[in-house]
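tool_call: predict_structure(chain=1)
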Amino acid sequence: MIERLRPRCIPAVVSWLFLAGFDLAGAARAMDDLSPPRAMPASEPYSLDDFQPLPVVDLDEPDDSPARLDPSLDPSAPSLELSLDPSVDRSPLLLASNPEATTQFELPLEKQIEENIWDRPIDARNGFFQEMSWDNTWLCGGSAPHHFGMFETEVRGTFALPLPTRRHPLLLMPGFAAYFLEGPKGADLPPRLYDAYVQLRWLHKLSPRWSADLSVTPGIYSDFEQSSDEAFRISGHFGAMFDWTPTTKIALGVVYLDRDDYRVLPFAGVIWEPSRDLIVELMVPRPQVSRRVYWHGAMTDETQDWLYIAGELGGGTWAIRADEAADTLTYSDLRLIVGLKRNVLFGVDYRVEMAYVFARKIKFRSDTPQIDPTDTIMLRAGMTY
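tool_result:
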């Protein structure tokens, strides 16, 4: 089962650019229809004999050399060069009245992505819709008395609202999950459980080195067969990230799960990225080590394949009706995961995982005895657009 509160990186920010600028080539073409202008040296008295024609540049003929005004006309004035080479990188010109706006001279795509990282993830979309994901998880059951199987399907969406600003939006992440239970024998468990929630998440870059992540997730977690107040639960997390070095980040925070077994967990650890192809996340509660693999069709930065191993805390707490009475069921397990994922920039991401599931427990708030299912394996497949 997917841990509902796993931090994602998934947040998104929208920035409006107001373009302004001057077409220098167009201005030169407009002047080409006029007679050559004349200029008089400022250091000499005015005299008709001192007028000298300025050099004329024929824009129809290619010229790789820069056009330079004759410095002899005014020795005290610095020379002016206008580069006519289209391969020269022209950075955006900032407007004094609006420092966030740029002129029509734009950076290449690679530099636009690099400059944009401070404001928002490179895979963030413009507009309200950000992403939609669908995951399916299967825990193998069996016919033995303590075998417990489960199939979970979950759909989640991410949408961005310009609150408080477009550069730092509020993310709305609604989701719905259904669990189909199998076994164990003799246990009074409902055949199905459900999650219906919406996560409100806000990510903010406090400074070039500090960032914050805040979320609150109200939801209904039950079998939909009773109206107990225990079905409504509020979880959330708060964390801060510090860029210690260009390759090392330190995270510290807290996760409130609102479960009967784990109310609060620390959110802390170190993220080490020694190269572009290796990411080590020594994080609690979900450590992960990822290694990029260069397979056919995933050789560019826009399409990447990653192999990873990870640890995960699974389970949850649901309000149920058992023996015609209201009760709460809490299931928990630990998962050692091996996975493969393909990330496609502005496309469809795929992932498949296999895990060994152990330390499994089913607890009730009533006097119903605890159940300890046997270890099992997990298969998971998902996609994100």
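agent: The first strand starts at residue 38 and ends at 39. Proceeding to next step.
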